[in-house]
Structures are given as C-alpha cells and as structure tokens.
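Mods, move this if it's the wrong board.
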Amino acid sequence: MPSSKGSDRASAKVIRIRLGRRMAASLLSTMAFFWRLANKLRKAEPNRILVADPVGLGDIITCEPLIRELVAERKEVVICSKAVWKVLFPEHGFLRWAPLHLPFGSPDEKAKYALKHYYLNPFRGDILNLKKLARGATALELRGDIRCVLLLYAVGCRRVISLSSYLGSDLHMWRAAAEIVPFQDGIRRWELNLRFLETLRNQGPVKSSRPCFEHLTDQVENNRICFMPVAPWPGKFWQKERWADLAATLRKKGFVVETLCGPDQGLEALAQVGESLKVIECKSAGQWVEQLNRCCCLISVDSGPMHLADALDVPVIALFGQGKLPLWAPSGPQSRFIHHQSDPDFFVCQPIFQNIALGQKFMNRITVDEVMKNVELVLTDDLRSASCAAAHSNRPG
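Not the wrong board. Structure tokens:
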C-alpha cells in the first residue's frame, strides 16, 4: 500500500460510499447488464440524444455547454430533468424537454425510496412520456448513477453512456452495465460533461466555453451584494455569526446587502443571517434570474443559484467546505471560491445526514476576512460593471 503524503491527499478527495449502498449498486448493475443486452435488439435512433441529469439546478446548468454542442451538430436533444428548469434554455427546433422528477434525487432520505412516489405523478407521468421519446435512443447519464442507468434502459434506450464513478466517489460503474466515460480529477463539472461528446463522436478532446445563459443576462448596475446562505444539505451552512459580521462590514463600505433563497427556505435563511437583512424567496427559476441580474456580487454556499449567477456573468464568491473541488467550482473570470481543503485533516465526505457536523466543521474554517479580501478582488476587477466600481472606489475607509 502506498504511504506517501501525495497518496493520502488523493485518497482524501474520494467520497467513500457505505457498504450497503455498494452491495445494492452491484445488484442493480447486474440487472442493467441484462437489460442492456435486451435493448440491443431495438432499432437504433442514432440522432436522438437524451441528456439525463435530473437532480439539481447546478447539475442542469453544468450541462449547458454539452447541450449547446449537441444542438450545433443538429442532434435531436432531449433534456431529462426537472420541469422547473426548462425556462433557462431558449426554444430551439432540435431541443426538446422531457420532465424527470426522480424520487431518489430528493435530499430527504425518507422520501428517496418511499414506494408511493414511484407509482404516483409526477414520476409516473414522466416515465410514460419518456418511453415515447427514448425508444432506440442514446442516453448520456452524467452522474454515474446506476439507478438512473437502469431507468434509461427501462424506458427503451438502446445505448447508455455513463460516468465511471458516482461523481468522484469510490462507487464505480460496471463496464458491463453501460459504456464508460472516465471520471477525471482537476476539472470542473461542465468540462467533465463534455467528455461524453468524445465517446459519442469517438474523437479527441472537445473545446467549448463555460456555461453561459447570455439570452437571460440583463444586468442592472447597482451596489447590491446578495447572500445565498442555505442549501438542501445543512452541512454546507456557514456560521450564523459570520454572515452577520460580513453584512455589517459590507454595509460600512456602502453596499446594500440582501439575502436570497429558494421556495420555502425563507425561515431557514433568516435563521442563518439574522433579522437585520431582507430575505427574498425566489419561487421560480425566472425569479432567480431577475434577482441575480440585480446583484453586483453574490456570496454563496455551494448551491445551484451559485452556478446560475456564474452563468449569468454575475461575480460569485463561493464558500466550500467538503464539496469536491474544482469539480463544483464556479468558472466565470470574475468569480472566486474559498476553501480549506489543503488542511491536513480534510477529506471529501458524502452529503448525508450523518455528515452534517463534519461538513460544517470544514465550512467554519472560512473567515470573514478571507471573504472580504475576495470581495475586494472581485469588485476591483476591470470586467465588473462601472457602477459597482464607483461604489467600491468611493466607499469610506
């Protein structure tokens, strides 16, 4: 066994999956193998490509460069994800949407495998609709999730291409279950998604740009900085007192500070930042776009809105605890991410209930001073809006 520090650090960046889940994945992989063999008898629809990433907002945003490239090749692209994200993508003759709301994609551990969610709508309706589109098609399963691979065979896909491991974990996809795209450390999620094009085309590296929703970008010049302090998993939360200290410091510098959150997260966000800050619940993707376009900077935990702001060219300062980097890091030229993953005791952990305290432990190593230094870097960047530059240069102190 290697014992070098380099090996130890590499091991620390691999998410460990529990034995019970690994055994269940092996059983599902065996089922997928036989379903794959049966589906090879179907007539192929080589021009129809299903892009399956049906979980969070950040996931679907990191698919944008891949979808953009497929549409440019005049492929018939079917996006399989939550219906609420459809408004992010412009209408196009080669682009279709197949809503897919997976119960096992829920952050609620009890809801993941409650049987009623699998035979009731919206999941039941999603599957019936997907069967009409998937027969004989090629599916790109971007997470390395054997459950999703099995579902894609079940709805009729002839060919499924999947990631070699479940998003950087030690749970590996069987080569017998699907065609494999090797997981690669050191790149962002959207770059990893583009690797699927290499397998699909049977060609070399694909060059493309980062996620960008230019058609939705309509930034309003102001000196408003917004916080995004919550996420579905509380292990990503930062210390409450530090949000309050950060807000006070920014206000002294002349900035307007407000808090954004998703539907039904208002009370949770208020508990994080305190009652001195206005909290705005964004109840739709369209409302998120509107609010983010009115920010000169977003300071956020690792979350879907962080990725959306980055794709709208809004400067982002992202706070990371246990999240795998640079896989989930923002990519914009004005964006920054703060972490303490070089600490000797750091390791990436799975975002489950048992690991909440561990996730917060790594988050709480980020200081207010670190965040403020990055705010100053972002807001003095030549690429920023003129009004933000004025607000920053005229601030007291």
